[in-house]
Write a structure and sequence with these properties.
Elements: H1 17-29, E1 30-35, E2 39-47, H2 51-60, E3 65-72, E4 80-87, H3 90-99, H4 119-130, E5 131-135, E6 141-147, H5 150-164, E7 179-184, H6 185-195, H7 204-212, H8 233-241, H9 245-252, H10 256-267
Helix pairs in contact: 1-4, 8-9
């Protein structure tokens, strides 16, 4: 993990990479609680193996804070030791709350900051807290994110599309009602290399996993999946006006299968007709 020095007078300036990362992590894994008489606390609880990250947060925060450990049983383990970072300062809590970390339950309501911020560091913070980096059982590199927030899912998918070109359709899953955003193969490699850059603040284990993705090489027998077609109203008009699917495919430069599927969706109301 990169060493962090206290940044005087810049606490939670999200144009500073460390704070953009820290804020993304807090939004995903932190909790603000309020109590009477302006009391309350900001807490982050993570596995004890990642305690070094909390120490870096402590260095970056110019207010008194504490780090403690506790051992308890969970749904996943009979004995689980976690580390808890706690900040009680009203000034610190107010600043973080104003940036977009609500008090109480917040998984659906969090949104990317409305102020200027470092995008790749914010995305890395969210993924470190609520995502995964590694290789599938088939040895394919992947980067994933699970979030309940539509705003965060939309921002991350848009950001990753700008970086890698990989487009994702956002849809909550039926079981948990959350968004599961997954990138694999070259897209995962590009994303990991971009957000886990040399010297960045991050979880050591995820940064190591991200760097290991670069060793994967696509086998010669593995075909590239063609990019998803971005249908426009003008393309839809051409598709509907063409005398046959073959004519439409030739004019649009695509194969007949996606053209036939798109035309069926248009004619049966699955997608709206172009104006």
């Amino acid at each position: 993990m990169a060493e962090c020095e206290p940044i005087a007078d810049q606490f939670m300036d999200l144009t500073v990479p460390q704070y953009a990362y820290m804020f993304g992590f807090l939004q995903a894994d932190g909790h603000l609680s309020g109590e009477p008489r302006r009391r309350g606390r900001l807490t982050v609880e993570i596995g004890a193996r990642d305690i070094d990250l909390l120490r870096e947060f402590q260095k970056l925060t110019p207010y008194n804070s504490s780090i403690t450990e506790r051992t308890r049983s969970t749904n996943f383990s009979a004995i689980h030791t976690s580390a808890v970072w706690c900040v009680c300062s009203l000034e610190a809590r107010t600043k973080i709350n104003q940036l977009g970390l609500p008090y109480g339950h917040k998984s659906r309501t969090i949104t990317p900051p409305s102020v200027a911020f470092s995008g790749r560091d914010y995305v890395r913070g969210v993924i470190d807290a609520d995502g995964s980096v590694g290789c599938t059982s088939q040895g394919l590199p992947f980067v994933s994110l699970t979030t309940s927030s539509t705003a965060v899912a939309t921002y991350v998918s848009s950001y990753v599309k700008d970086v890698t070109g990989a487009d994702r359709t956002l849809k909550r899953n039926r079981r948990d009602d959350v968004y599961n955003i997954l990138y694999t193969k070259e897209a995962a490699q590009q994303l990991a290399a971009h957000i886990y850059y040399q010297g960045c603040l991050s979880l050591d284990r995820k940064r190591s996993a991200a760097h290991s993705l670069g060793r994967w090489t696509r086998p010669a027998s593995m075909k590239h999946r063609p990019p998803r077609i971005q249908w426009t109203p003008e393309m839809d008009r051409i598709l509907l006006a063409a005398p046959t699917i073959a004519h439409a495919a030739a004019e649009l430069g695509y194969s007949s299968t996606p053209c036939r599927r798109r035309r069926w969706n248009l004619l049966h109301g699955v997608v709206p007709l172009p104006r």
